[in-house]
C-alpha cells in the first residue's frame, strides 16, 4: 500500500500546499481520501482521474471536499472519456449528495434540479460496516467534529492505514486505529497558545500532543501528522507528538509518498 499526499494544509490551501487530499494505491485499487481545495490539480500529477476506483470523504467541510466539483466536471464533460466509464462510488456522510449539489448548482433556483447521480454513486458511511473497493477494505468510525465526520481505515493484504479526518479527542479514533501500521492524523493547533488558551477547545481538532496520545493509545506503528494550518508551526506540533508517542513520527509534505 502506498499513500501519496495531494494536499495537507489545514482549514484551507496554503502557499505551498492544497487542502486535504490523499491518494491510496493498494494492489490495483486507487482510492481518494478527501478532495479539498486545490487537490484535484495535484491528483492529476500522480494519476489519471479516470483510474480512480472510489472516493471516501471524511466530512463535508470545503477544505476536505470542495474539489469534488472539479472531479464531477472532469468525469461528466471530458471529451475523451473512456467508453467503459461507470459512476464513481463516493463513500461519505449521508447528506453528501445534497451538499455537493449545492456547491455545483448554477444558482440557488436550480439547486432542486441539480443531480449528480449520473456521475457519482453515493454510499452513506453510516450505513456500511465495511466497503470493498477493488480488493481493499474501507471501514469508518464517527469522530468528534462540529459536523458529521468520520475517520477512515483502509486495509489491503495485511497492511492498514487509518486517516483521522478532522476530530477532537475521540475514543472512536483510537478504536479504529488500533494496531494500524500508519495513522495519518490531523494536528491543527498547539496544545497551549499563550494569550489564547491553556488547553485546546474540545470537539473540533487535535493538538500535536493529542495526536501523539491517540497514536500511542492505539498502538500504531507510525504516525504521520497532517492538516497543519499556515499560521502554526508544524515542527512544533511534531515535537509535541513525539513527547508522548515513541514510535516513528513525521510531518507529511505535499506530493510526498509513504509506503505502508
What does it look like?
The protein has 260 residues and is an alpha/beta fold. It has one domain (2-76, 85-259): Ribonuclease Z/Hydroxyacylglutathione hydrolase-like (Metallo-beta-lactamase, Chain A), CATH 3.60.15.10. It is built from 7 helices and 14 strands. The chain has a 7-stranded mixed sheet with strand order 6-5-4-3-2-1-14. The protein has a 7-stranded mixed sheet with strand order 7-8-9-10-11-12-13. It is globular, with a radius of gyration of 18 Å. The N and C termini lie close together (5 Å). The relative contact order is 0.16.
N-to-C series of helices and strands: EEEHEHHEHEEEEEHEHEHEE
Our count of helices gives 7
Please state the overall shape, judged from the principal axes of the Cα atoms: globular
- The CATH topology turns out to be Metallo-beta-lactamase, Chain A
Q: What is the CA-atom radius of gyration, in angstroms? A: 18 Å
Strand order of the largest sheet: 6-5-4-3-2-1-14
Main β-sheet, in a few words? 7 strands, mixed
Per DSSP E runs of 2 or more residues, the count of β-strands stands at 14
The fraction of residues assigned to DSSP E strands is 25-35%
Approximate helicity band = 10-25%
Structure classification: alpha/beta
**CATH classification, class level:** Alpha Beta
List the domain count as a whole number: 1
CATH architecture: 4-Layer Sandwich
Distance between the termini: 5 Å
Amino acid at each position: 500500500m502506498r499513500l501519496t499526499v495531494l494536499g495537507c494544509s489545514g482549514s484551507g490551501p496554503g502557499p505551498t500546499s492544497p487542502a486535504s487530499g490523499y491518494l491510496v494505491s493498494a494492489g490495483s485499487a486507487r482510492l481518494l481520501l478527501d478532495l479539498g481545495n486545490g487537490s484535484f490539480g495535484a491528483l492529476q500529477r500522480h494519476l489519471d482521474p479516470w483510474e480512480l476506483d472510489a472516493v471516501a470523504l471524511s466530512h463535508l467541510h470545503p477544505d476536505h471536499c470542495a474539489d469534488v466539483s472539479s472531479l464531477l466536471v472532469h468525469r461528466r464533460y471530458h471529451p475523451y472519456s473512456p467508453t467503459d466509464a461507470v459512476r464513481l462510488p463516493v463513500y461519505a456522510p449521508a447528506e453528501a449528495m445534497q451538499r455537493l449539489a449545492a456547491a455545483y448548482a448554477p444558482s440557488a433556483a436550480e439547486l432542486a434540479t441539480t443531480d449528480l447521480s449520473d456521475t457519482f454513486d453515493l454510499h452513506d458511511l453510516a450505513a456500511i460496516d465495511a466497503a470493498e473497493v477493488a480488493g481493499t477494505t474501507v471501514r469508518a468510525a464517527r469522530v468528534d467534529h462540529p459536523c458529521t465526520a468520520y475517520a477512515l481505515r483502509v486495509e489491503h493484504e495485511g497492511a492498514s492505514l487509518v486517516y483521522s479526518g478532522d476530530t477532537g479527542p475521540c475514543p472512536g479514533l483510537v478504536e479504529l486505529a488500533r494496531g494500524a501500521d500508519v495513522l495519518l492524523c490531523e494536528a491543527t493547533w498547539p496544545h497551549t497558545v499563550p494569550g489564547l488558551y491553556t488547553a485546546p477547545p474540545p470537539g473540533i481538532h487535535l493538538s500535536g500532543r493529542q495526536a501523539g496520545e491517540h497514536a500511542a493509545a492505539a498502538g500504531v506503528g507510525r504516525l504521520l501528522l497532517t492538516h497543519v494550518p499556515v499560521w502554526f508551526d508544524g515542527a512544533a506540533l511534531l515535537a509535541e507528538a513525539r513527547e508522548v508517542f515513541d514510535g516513528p513520527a513525521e510531518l507529511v509534505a505535499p506530493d510526498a509518498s509513504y509506503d505502508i
